[in-house]
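Project channel, design review

CF: Before we commit to the Mucilaginibacter terrenus constructs, I'd like one complete example in the thread so the newer folks can see what an input/output pair looks like. Taking DUF4369 domain-containing protein.
RD: sounds good, go ahead.
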Amino acid sequence: MKTVVKNLKMIAVSMMLIAVAACKNGHTTTIVEHDDNHRQKIKYSGTIVFNPTNDGIEHISPGGYLEFEDDDRKFEAKQHTVGGIYYRFNGDSEINVLDADQKRLVAKAVKAIEKANRKH
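CF: and here is what came back for DUF4369 domain-containing protein:
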């Protein structure tokens, strides 16, 4: 029973994040938060679907993207022309498989998007 409830909660959270991250194509959303010690910037366009564990992206609509900056760490994600999601961390080469540290940064972006959209 606990497993079923946990799975239902995970599905509900994933669906909420899908709805939160979705916006009309051509429309860009930028969210910036900063104080003396910390700066965070989120910029996205298109429809973005996060994976069930919220540490990766399953789909970005054509022309859409996600950019995230957290102090000196940043990444961008987009749908590649040959399919799949490609990420670029701190200006490095494009990759499509994330290591544990990169997954943590993507998860941080998901949480920041969710938090920002709860405010509105």
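RD: helpful, thanks. Residues 15-25 have pLDDT under 50 and may be disordered.
CF: The CA atoms of residues 18 and 119 lie 17 Å apart.
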